[in-house]
Design goal:
There is one protein chain. By secondary structure, the chain is mostly helical. Helix content is 74%, strand content 0%. The chain is built from 13 helices and no strands. Helix 2 packs antiparallel against helix 6, helix 6 packs across helix 8 and helix 8 crosses helix 9. The radius of gyration is 27 Å and the shape is flat.
Length: 310
């Protein structure tokens, strides 16, 4: 009986080890995205399971970049986060040099700025470091996040629809990073320079020392907001593909859009000279025109397919 009991325990332990090994291999396959038959019919629970692993891999990618940023947080804070709030920021130098080169004098040269930032809570510095690492991780992992979203949607697309998605991850990432760079190097310097040099009253008794959390919220909102705003061409492509947007609509309301963009540029660049306003307005106008071209091309293809089908 003792030998039988020994063999039973031995067989049970082997079975458990094999099960654990199988689960371990399955886990790492899911992490790498190698498991799951995309062509097979999937139930609602299978879709939820697939979505869960897409989310797990996305979160893992963000964490990897966030940890790398956190390990270099001092350099990131000094060179990147504080950049637009310092007088020696590259955008200030380039704009001033451009202003002199094209004969505009000091029109694009902004007043000196040396912003002092304060922290009033015990955990403020640490929590700000976490916020910087998290947002930086999302920005760095953005192309991979788009790829995971595309992989989740891909099984539902037809072969003809898949042809139209070639390069979509590149273009979505390109416009997002282009917008983020525009917000960081153009909008943020204009915004912080104006707010820092704006005065209230004539007695000069106000000491401007913004909170670190407020400063981070501002630069994050400007950077991410610009990145999302620059997705306008991709949004036009998608809306035109499903028939909700036409180039005729965009052309009809073009003049109103231009007025809105000029007002937006005037708000962003409170300087009264036209040069600084045009620097902000021109990229936005170009995005609008690119959206019209994209919508026209998509609509033309849709009309051609409809005629062939009819």
């Amino acid at each position: 009986m003792g030998e039988i009991s020994f063999f039973v325990r031995f067989a049970t332990s082997i079975f458990i080890e094999l099960a654990i090994e199988s689960q371990r291999k399955s886990f790492f396959k899911r992490i790498r995205g190698l498991q799951g038959a995309e062509d097979a019919e999937m139930s609602f629970i299978d879709h939820l399971e697939a979505l869960r692993w897409h989310i797990v891999r996305s979160v893992f990618a963000v964490l990897v970049f966030a940890i790398a940023i956190f390990l270099n947080i001092d350099w990131i804070f000094d060179k990147v986060i504080l950049g637009p709030s310092q007088d020696g920021f590259i955008s200030y130098k380039l704009l001033c040099a451009l202003s002199h080169k094209i004969g505009m004098g000091d029109s694009l040269c902004m007043p000196p700025i040396a912003m002092k930032i304060q922290v009033t809570t015990v955990s403020g510095t640490f929590m700000s470091s976490i916020s910087i690492a998290a947002v930086g991780g999302i920005l760095a992992a953005f192309p991979y996040l788009c790829w995971e979203v595309w992989r989740f949607v891909k099984p539902a697309l037809k072969p003809e629809e898949l042809k139209h998605t070639r390069g979509i991850i590149f273009w979505v990432s390109f416009f997002f990073f282009l917008g983020a760079a525009f917000g960081y190097f153009m909008l943020a310097p204009f915004t912080f320079n104006f707010l820092y040099n704006y005065t209230l009253g004539s007695q000069q008794i106000l000491d401007y020392k913004p909170m670190l959390s407020d400063y981070l919220d501002s630069i994050i909102d400007i950077t991410l907001g610009s990145g999302i705003a620059f997705e306008l061409p991709m949004a036009s492509w998608l809306l035109a593909r499903i028939g909700l947007l036409t180039p005729g609509f965009l052309r009809t309301y073009r003049k109103y859009a231009y007025v809105a963009l000029l007002v937006l540029a005037a708000i962003i660049t409170p300087s009264p000279d036209w040069g600084s306003q045009m620097i902000v307005c021109v990229p936005l106008v170009l995005l609008y025109e690119i959206s019209i071209i994209i919508a026209a091309r998509v609509t033309k293809k849709n009309d051609k397919k409809w005629e062939e089908w009819s």
